[in-house]
Structures are given as structure tokens and as C-alpha cells.
Amino acid sequence: MVTEPGPNTFPGRLRGVSDHGAQRVLEVEVAGQPVRAKTPREDGVPVGEDVLVHLPRAKVLPYADGKLVLRA
User: Fold this and answer.
1) What is the pLDDT of residues 17-67, one digit of tens each?
2) Among 42, 45, 56, 66, which residue's beta carbon has the most beta carbons within 10 A?
3) Is the CB of residue 14 less than 8 Å from the CB of residue 51?
4) Are 50 and 67 in contact (CB under 8 A)?
5) Does domain 9-68 have CATH number 2.40.50?
6) Count of C-beta atoms within a 10 Å radius of residue 30
7) Beta carbons within 8 Å of 45's beta carbon, 6+ residues apart
8) For residue 29, what are the CA distances in angstroms to 17, 34, 35, 43, 59?
9) What are the b/e assignments for 9-26, b being 16+ CB within 10 Å?
10) pTM
11) Gap between the Cα atoms of 34 and 63, Å rounded
12) Whole-number Å distance between alpha carbons of 39 and 72
């Protein structure tokens, strides 16, 4: 999550948080699609439902119909 708009940054709505020890998995809805983002525990959890999500191309794993879409 980020606080300022920029490249590859999209508005989203926080839908849930799962605790995974040293990391948390944030469940966010972006453009009507579910997105899960890992974040270090020390980053904390965003306040409120409306968030900005930065999706760096090198770290995004796209799925379609529950299956990983392989990139060429």
C-alpha cells in the first residue's frame, strides 16, 4: 500500500487482512477484481477501507479463472 498516486498505482478497497507471522496478506478489491498483497508486519495495516495499491510489474503474478497466467 502507498499513500501517493503514481505509476502502476490503483485505488482499491481493503476487504480483509490475514496474519502470517512476519507478514500479513491484505485482500484488496481493485477495479472489481480481488488482489492479495503481502506486506511486512512492521508496515502495519492501512487505516480505513479506501487504499492505494502499488502493483510493481516485476512482482505481480496474474491469475485467470484460478490459474496462474504464464508470461511469455
Assistant:
1) 999 888 999 999 998 988 888 888 888 787 789 999 888 888 888 888 888
2) 45
3) yes
4) no
5) yes
6) 16
7) 17, 24, 26
8) 12, 5, 6, 20, 18
9) eeebebeeeeeeeeebeb
10) 0.72
11) 10
12) 27
Answer yes or no: are the C-beta atoms of 18 and 28 closer than 8 Å: no
Amino acid at 31: A
Q: Which amino acid is at 67?
A: K
What is the SS3 string spanning the chain?
Answer: CECCCCCCEEEEEEEEEEEECCEEEEEEEECCEEEEEEEEHHHCCCCCCEEEEECCHHHCCCEECCEECCCC
When pLDDT is cut at 50, 70 and 90, the band that residue 15 belongs to is: very high
